[in-house]
């Protein structure tokens, strides 16, 4: 019997790629409910400009970043890499919208010693607070609570909260510090403060040797901050799709909805929406946790409940093109602290990051997330969502004209929220699967990281354990 992958998004494609690379002769079925592969990653070309619906840049550093660069090289995409270097305005200039104006965040050491709005004192004084604040022993807590204890309320409000909006469209008062900022949390727990932990790591801790590849060495030498691919990030998923389709042992089932999974020993029975039943020796689930929860609720209610503990939020991503210069200061864009009480999460300056041949200004407005239900509804029309985006773009950036082109993308339940206790919940899921000898592997952004790099590496690590 074959193995089956549920879901043809980035994680599902990565799982298929790594499984077939490990054993090209293995029989593998990939089931995708829609008519396309690639999941949320989608790059739309309008007037020679790329409108990204979701992720648009990748970081080249650390084990996850190096792994993705290795994959890009293996896929023959090295010549399509489009980097932003550390000395570019898009890497150096990042802003927030606070107290009715756009303000730049610190970009160098000297910025720590001067007072810049919206902070009431130089940031160095906030960091000194960490050194004199006693450790509080915890298994986990919210990033907001952790940051407020260590650095003060202003850092929590104006640095960390908008950062979490950018990472997962979430509320820092709910998101787990022991997942998103695990290293900083462990510094406090082990050494008493973040500062002492960082100094110890710099002076005494042995660094893990990273296995650099040719492309990651190039990224280091050329000092990339982030990068994309020519044609947009969908170039990656399309190439992955083309690569796995070359294997004759792979069966693709598009427009096929899985309705139920029953696990036996040692196989699994999958019922599809056309009434057919497939038997496989192992299931790799890359679909969102709430979808998997629904498929097994009858046979494994306890596991279903654990999966359902992971909540998701919806995000509206609106790409806008202007025929005038609306960007007054080059940079990556800006984020909005939740305390500003406006419905946008932030704005990305696409044409600053990757200039286009049309000389038109392109920006992307992100809205909703944790606050989607507060400001929006899934029944809103594209025109209504566009109206909100342009209204707040005019407010925050003093834009006078309307866009000449746009694309409205409503991404329902697209980003998981790693709330306090997430690590413990995932461990319970893994333990249940192992204890009950269920032929199931879980992967994807529900569990081990929302970023593209995290998804690819965690999927690779999970499928390598499959016999």
TrEMBL record:
Top-level class of the enzyme under EC nomenclature: oxidoreductase
Protein name listed in UniProt: Protoporphyrinogen oxidase
Native source organism of the sequence: Brassicogethes aeneus
Subcellular location, principal: mitochondrion
Cofactor(s) the protein needs: FAD
A single GO molecular function term of this UniProt record: oxygen-dependent protoporphyrinogen oxidase activity
GO-annotated cellular components: mitochondrial inner membrane
Annotated GO biological process: protoporphyrinogen IX biosynthetic process
UniProt entry tagged with the keyword Disulfide bond: no
Database matches in SUPFAM superfamilies: FAD-linked reductases, C-terminal domain, FAD/NAD(P)-binding domain
Gene3D superfamilies the record matches: FAD/NAD(P)-binding domain
Involved pathway(s): Porphyrin-containing compound metabolism; protoporphyrin-IX biosynthesis; protoporphyrin-IX from protoporphyrinogen-IX: step 1/1
Function statement: Catalyzes the 6-electron oxidation of protoporphyrinogen-IX to form protoporphyrin-IX.
Family membership noted in the UniProt record: Belongs to the protoporphyrinogen/coproporphyrinogen oxidase family. Protoporphyrinogen oxidase subfamily.
Domain Amine oxidase: 10-466
Cofactor binding: number and manner: Binds 1 FAD per subunit.
Taxonomy of the source species: Eukaryota, Metazoa, Ecdysozoa, Arthropoda, Hexapoda
Reactions catalysed: protoporphyrinogen IX + 3 O2 = protoporphyrin IX + 3 H2O2
